[in-house]
Structure formats: structure tokens, C-alpha cells
Model the fold of this input.
Amino acid sequence: MRIVRDYQYAMADDRGASVAIGNFDGVHLGHQHVMDIAGKSDAPLGILTFEPHPREFFAPDAPPFRLMNAEARAHRLEKLGVDLLYELAFNRALAGLEAEDFAREVLADGLGVAHVVVGADFCFGKGRKGNTKSLQEFGARFGFGVTIAEIMEGPLGAVSSTNIRNALSEGRPRDAAAMLGHWHRIDGPVLHGEKRGRQLGYPTANMSLAGLHVPKLGVYAVLVDVLDGSHQGSYRGVASLGVRPMFGGEEPNLETYLFDFTGDLYGADLSVALIDFLRPEAKFDGIDALVTQMDADSAEARAILAAL
Done:
């Protein structure tokens, strides 16, 4: 998969794709439906998205909301067979383009798209004044085809990043997975922590949640992929997502204990999938009570994961 970050400097091999357009946060089943339509063409399959997310650009001080960072999104899209990822820098110049200018300068002249596929609620251009009807009109004028995909509905309602965030906030990772089409994962490097877990007999891999939507705080059964390094592979485990109330933490992070694992993971990139919410965070009377609960959490997580 090639990644193109500037439409003004697209090469000949970057042009002529059938392109699905959107933010693709989570790359959920609705996104995949749009991609499937775009992929029916004989042209290369392209994804047009933006970095940072436009919502981050317009409201930089708002609470984090993203389901995945740019690297995790690119990795997921590559797995799904995308040939070209147009990850355009969302800046003041791009945000200021009128809808017609976006269609002409970015889609037609810049990227030379053969066809675009968007969801029925798609808006674009300055002030979000462009919509699916105007996109079809611009496509006819500038020489690219346009297909409008209906919003996907599932047993839990509309398949959307908002509904997935709601499910995660309520401690329902399986409902989130039903809309995503895959487990919700938190990706990133293993960071040095305070190493309390090692002293308790539960050494953990600590990861930051910076910039990401924070699911319900508590303990989860998890699947873990170590993506690089000497311990690369797939593991099972139990993770605490929260602020460590026993030790006065403030910023939430993810601390994952890998079952039957021995080794050093510092600096390695991990992908941690949330499978089931076991219990909320709690403050215990002492270390012995905490360790007893951790033993019970591990046993419960092992049973859940064995049934997958």
C-alpha cells in the first residue's frame, strides 16, 4: 500500500483509483461496506482520509475521541487490501476550500480519481456546504463517477464511530466489535512505568491512551499481539485500563499482564484487543486484597479467552 500525503504532488501511479472517502475512524463495518463498493471497480482501490481528523483541527481542546491513531488505521486498511491511502494533511488551506474547489483541485486535478464512493451523510468543503447531490454534479462536470452508499444498520442501530464509542464507554466491547467487524484494539509502544506490577507478581506492559477515546475504566480480558521484537507473536492476558486508584494515579493508561510470558517488552509495539469487561476499577484495603482480586481476574479472563 502506498501512502500519499499531498494531492498537489501525486505521481502518475497514484492516479486513476476508485476511492472511498471518509475519516475511517475504527474502520468499522460501515466503512468496509463503502470500501467494498469502491473495490468492485477494475481500478486500484484507494482511501481518501485526513490527518489530523477534521474534528481535532476545529476543536483541538475537546476531549480525545479517536478509536485509533493514524498508524493503526493505516495498518488496518492495508490488511483489507487497500492499494492507495491518500492521507491528506487537514490544515487551514484544505479546510478553506469551497466544495467545488475540493472536487476540482483535490479529486479531479490532484488525485485524478476515476470514481468516488461516499456515505449518504457525506458533507465536504468549507462550512460543510457540499453534499452527495453536489458531489454527483461535480463528478459529472469534472470527469469522475460517484456512488452513494446507504448508512449501514445493524441489530444495535446505525453502524457508526459514535455508537462504537458509546458501547466502549459503557463497557460493552463485544457490542463494539459487532459494529467494527473486529475487536477494538489499542495500539502503541510499551512504556516504562513504576514497575509495581512486577513487585506484585503481575508484571505489566504499560501503554499510553493519549489522543484516544477512553473506554470504561476497569479490568478486561484481552488478546495481545506483540508486533515486533524478539517476542513477536500472539498472547492472551488481562488488562487494567484506568488511573490506578490504589496508587493515586491521574492519567488513564493501559496495563496488560500477558499470561505465561517471560521477557522484556519495553519499546515493543503492542496491539491489545478488548474482549470482555470484567469489573470496574476499585480501591482495596491493602496489597494482599489487591493481589487476591488480581488472581480472580486472571482466572476469569483465562476462562473467557479459552472459550473464544
About this structure: The two ends are 31 Å apart (CA to CA).
